[in-house]
Write a structure and sequence with these properties.
Elements lengths: L9 H14 L6 H9 L11 H4 L6 E5 L5 E5 L2 H11 L7 E4 L5 H10 L5 E5 L2 H13 L6 E4 L12 E6 L8 H6 E8 L11
Parallel strand pairs: 3-4, 3-6, 4-5, 6-7
Antiparallel strand pairs: 1-2
Helix pairs in contact: 1-2
Length: about 200
């Protein structure tokens, strides 16, 4: 990022990250920029150096398969911002996130909707959900529903959802997601194509 992080606060790095993301055309919704600025991303990726946590272009891998491939990560901030712009969360929206990751995105969603208990995040890996729950609780968003389960099936217990976002890359949109989306709802997902993913 070009900043000496030995003397720079996380807040300053966060402000620099948001400025770069916005200059590149992401986080154009003021509320998305606000929650990015207000949320301590480094607390969701505690093993990453501050410069890495706040690098706008870099995903932070937090969990790997035994063969070294990435299993879970904190998506690059530019991608988080782009998807949140597209999701366009309104206050009071009920939200399902497929792919809990570090809990960072669920924290942003909770702030955008105005109530943490309206956000459900699901992941198939119990280690991922345990870490996400700890980070959300530590940052004051323990009311987010963190579920261990197959996100491909959605989560019917809290449906219908006004907004659904997948931070995993599916090949297609499962029928269950459509069935759990409220009329007039919005779904954002990075469909997988045979190219390199940003996470």
């Amino acid at each position: 990022m070009g900043t000496d992080t030995t003397t720079v606060s996380p807040g300053s790095l966060r402000a620099e990250m948001v400025a770069k993301v916005r200059k590149s055309g992401y986080a154009q919704l003021s509320e998305v920029a606000r929650v990015l600025l207000d949320t301590p991303r480094h607390e969701f990726v505690p093993d990453a150096p501050l410069a890495t946590a706040y690098d706008p272009w870099q995903a932070v891998i937090t969990h790997r398969f035994q063969d070294g491939r990435s299993l879970s990560c904190a998506s690059a901030p530019w991608l988080v911002a782009a998807m949140l712009d597209q999701l366009h969360v309104q206050p009071g929206n009920r939200i399902l996130e497929i792919g809990a990751g570090t809990g960072y995105n669920a924290c942003l969603l909770a702030q955008l909707t105005g109530r943490a208990d309206l956000v459900t995040t699901i992941d198939i890996d119990p280690d991922v959900t345990a870490k996400a729950k700890r980070a959300l609780t530590a940052t004051g968003y323990g009311d987010v529903h963190v579920i261990t389960g197959d996100g491909g099936l959605g989560y019917p217990d809290h449906a219908p959802y006004d907004r659904m976002i997948a931070t995993v890359s599916p090949w297609d949109i499962p029928a269950q997601w459509w069935q759990q989306l409220a009329p007039g709802g919005r779904l954002v997902a990075p469909l997988r194509f045979p190219v390199k993913s940003a996470c």
